[in-house]
Each structure stands twice: as C-alpha cells, then as structure tokens.
Amino acid sequence: MPEKRAEPEKVECNMTPMIDVTFLLIIFFMLITQMSSEENEKMILPEWCNQVLEELEPTNKVTINIPAVGHRARFYKLNMDKLPLDAMKDRLKDVAERDEKTEVIIRADKELNYSEVQAALIACAKAGLTKMDIAAFKEQH
C-alpha cells in the first residue's frame, strides 16, 4: 500500500505590521517635508544673474527671511521665529558662540529696500558669522 504524504501546511504572511510601518513612514516623511518647507517664507526673490556656482561643504545653517511690508521690513524671521532686529542680533550672537562656522542664508523680498538686507548682513558680521549667502531666484529653462 502506498504511503500517504502529509499535506504541507499553508504558509500565510501577516501583512498588517508591514502596512503599519509603511503608513508610519509616510506620515514621518510628510511631517519632515512640511517642516523643511516652512523654513522658507513665501516671497518673491530677486532674479539670479551670476553664472558661477560654488560648491559649499555641508555645515550648520541658519536662514534669515526678510518679508517686505511696503518697502520696509517690519520683522526678521530667523529660521521660523519672528524677531525684531535687536532680538535677531542677540540670537545671532548665540549662534556664533555655538559654532562660528555656521552658514547664514539671507532671503529677502524683491520689493525690499537694500538697507533692510544690509542691516541683517551687518548683524551677522558683528556676531562673528562670516559665511553668508543671499538667496535669489533662478529661472528654470
């Protein structure tokens, strides 16, 4: 009499934990994307005209947004904090004390008087921050 083979057990894969992890990753990346986009204030930047690009080594960075109200700046946004000029100077000194190689990116509205941008540049220099960039809009062709 032929031997009966035992039927193999059905192997099932429980996908619930994998789906949970996938949704958690989606939520994580959505939040991170939102936080990084909030760092840049919505404004019209001046047009970029220089053809030379510099490769910068990665460092700590601080972003100063200067939105225009008319042709004047009512406040400065250091990262995501709205500050008057004097408070921004104090905060920049604290940043320089922690790491003097911190890169400062200044983003100013196109309609803003240059004297408002100059005040931010001077504040950075007095705080001891020497790596400064001014952001401009580069048109994509």
Give the C-level CATH assignment of one domain: Alpha Beta
Number of strands: 5
Count of DSSP helices? Answer: 3
Q: Give the strand content.
A: 15-25%
Name the CATH architecture of one domain: 2-Layer Sandwich
Cα radius of gyration in angstroms: 26 Å
Order of helices and strands: HEEEHEHE
- Could you please say which CATH topology of one domain applies here? Nucleotidyltransferase, domain 5
pLDDT < 50 runs, ≥5 residues = none
Which structural category fits the helices and strands?
alpha/beta
Helix content: 25-40%
User: In one word, what is the shape?
Assistant: elongated
Description:
With 141 residues, the chain is of the alpha/beta class. The chain has a domain at 61-134: Nucleotidyltransferase, domain 5 (2-Layer Sandwich), CATH 3.30.420.270. It is built from 3 helices and 5 strands. It has helices spanning 16-38, 85-98, 114-127; strands at 61-66, 76-78, 81-83, 103-108, 131-134. A 5-stranded mixed β-sheet has the order 3-2-1-4-5. Helix 2 packs parallel to helix 3. The radius of gyration is 26 Å and the shape is elongated. The model has no long low-confidence stretch (mean pLDDT 80).
Concise synopsis of the structure shown:
By secondary structure, this protein is of the alpha/beta class.
Features:
141 residues; alpha/beta; Nucleotidyltransferase, domain 5; 3 helices; elongated
Q: SSE layout and pairings?
A:
Elements: H1 16-38, E1 61-66, E2 76-78, E3 81-83, H2 85-98, E4 103-108, H3 114-127, E5 131-134
Parallel strand pairs: 1-4, 4-5
Antiparallel strand pairs: 1-2, 2-3
Helix pairs in contact: 2-3
